[in-house]
Amino acid sequence: MGGSKNVYASVKAYSKRGKLLTKSDFQTLAESRDMEELVTRIKNTIYANAVADIQKPYTSQKIESALRNQLADVHYSISKTSGRSGVLEAYYMKFIISNLKLILKGKVLGKPQEDIESHVNLHAEELIKQRDIVVKALVAKDLEEAVASFNSVKFGEEISKAAALYNEKKNLQIFDTYFDKILYQYLAGSMKNYSDKESTKLVAMDIDFYNILSIIRGKFWELQEDQIEDLIINTGPTSKELFGRMMAASTLRDAFNELSNTKYKNLIPQAENDLDAIAEFERGFEMMIYDASRKSFTKMFSFANIVGITKLTSFEVRNLAAIAFAIEQKIPTETTMSKLILEEE
Question: Which of 21, 148, 237, 322 could form a disulfide with 25 if both were Cys (CB 3.0 to 4.6 A apart)?
Fold first, then answer.
């Protein structure tokens, strides 16, 4: 981390943090009666420029795409200001990974290319000149050809494993998990160069989230232990032992209970039903990451501020996209608000 660059990026992160939307801002947006009112209300926030050029009729998809454009710009500029940090580059990969997930899942479902294309926004790729990899997958005629288009890429092997496991289990989330693995492996690798305790804490939490959730999902999908093992990113002996015990647990409930002696003990879900338990755990963990990101601003001029703002702006755009979807689907405001990642009262 370059010293002066880091300070400048940290100051920038602080100013962005001051502009984050509040709970009442989200409430006002969620209370919009229709898409038009929502867009008008977004125009009174820092996202005004993002939505300025959206053409009517307004859809949640157009709004989300416009917001993701702005988010890519924000993350790109934070990453550039702080001197091309590996950790920030890994977080930036999220944009590309989410497009690749969309494309491969679209191919599995046999969707026509135009349909998939309408959901894919290549702005993030254009900023870092990485369009080709996504476009190649997009124009492939089927899943097999899309998977083959990654042969020359360093994570090609993971994608062919995902396709093989999908063919066996027929669960689309397998693609999400393997693509996340690529992302978090990259993140774990880039974290080795940091001595800053605060920022490594945030990144380590993200990697724990990925690992624990992969074990839980793997058990839910009834994968073999070696198949689950393949999803795990190795982070150290203590977690290795914990993960081993979780994988060996006979039920999902037992696997969750292995967390009772860890810092994640409060996240053990109460729900009886397995699917509900996974959703409850996932939300609890995301709230914990959100809180940790907010607390990363206690010390000025640290790299943690920069990681923190990267995460907080991502949560913010996700919340806005959820609101747009809810208004389009006529979901009640209270339901929408309860699903957002926000400060708890």
Answer: 21
